[in-house]
UniProtKB/TrEMBL annotation:
Keywords: ATP-binding, Cytoplasm, Ligase, Nucleotide-binding, Purine biosynthesis. One of its GO terms (biological process) is adenine biosynthetic process. Belongs to the AIR synthase family. This is Phosphoribosylformylglycinamidine cyclo-ligase. Pfam families: AIRS, AIRS_C. It is found in: Cytoplasm. Its EC number is 6.3.3.1. Transmembrane segments: none annotated. Residues 42-154 form the PurM-like N-terminal domain. It catalyses: 2-formamido-N(1)-(5-O-phospho-beta-D-ribosyl)acetamidine + ATP = 5-amino-1-(5-phospho-beta-D-ribosyl)imidazole + ADP + phosphate + H(+).
Amino acid sequence: MTYAGSGVDIKKLDGIKSDILKSLSFKRTGFGAPLGGEGHYAGLIDMGYFALAITTDGVGTKLLIADAIEKWDTIGIDCVAMNVNDLYVMGIEPLAFVDYISLEKPNPELVRQTMIGLNEGARQANVSIVGGETAALPDIIKGFDLAGTAVGVVPKDRIITGKDVKPGDVIVGLPSSGIHSNGYSLVRKVVESAGLKYTDPCPYNKKVSLGEELLTPTRIYAEVVGLAKRFNIHGMAHITGGGLMNLKRITSYGFDFTDPLPVPEVFKFIQKTGNIEDEEMYRTFNMGMGYVIICDKQDAGAIVKMTDGTIVGKIVKEGCRIRGIKMW
């Protein structure tokens, strides 16, 4: 099975994004003008000494699993995480968050549980939820959708874009909590094609159902805000949909992952059940490494000691390999 075969073609999506950027030609000038180019993890606005950063994202089809077992109390964590993690990679401290819930029909229990997760995500990220929108759209929405927008600030001289990344830099990988919130179109196709139910016991963890295991919330990497202030970090990446292909967003140099993080059981289960090739797995999922920090060799040891991260490889001139498997 493949991600494209499950209905999500990353190459086609990239083409659509490129067309969108070409269409959005108007730019404000003066105070509040945009900073930098498009295509990074967050949009930046010039606010004098500071840059204001904005990013937006949703939870995706992971919501369908929450619906299947009527457990919605963690998806709010995912929503916050997918946004604030995209701010962290540029050295940005998140401040505030707004959410958007669209419903096929009013469901008070779904909304109540969703708020539990949003509040917990906000606590973990130390952000205030300052507003939001709830809409009933029976002619448009089947089920419901959850998305959000996060706002943060960073001194302009501390923005991390990846421009300082160079061959020889060390790569520190931080573990993920699981699948996070990407690749679920493929996950669901694997599970459902195998005739499994989300209420079935998890094959490798009998204490929970398969659905509960797949709903493990996305990790929020709040600790990297302090790291960005203390160390000269050259680049960071949040490994989301597209897996290791996300690394192309921060540098044109290559990556050599000689000692990748251990692959969690959930990915082994998905790969075996769906008969998925290694390359496809690493181009779709985080495979146990949800966040990457790139730095000088002399800083890598200290960063590892201050986190649960591990040195997983180094920056090279071109290409990307993980234990010899060529990604690009």
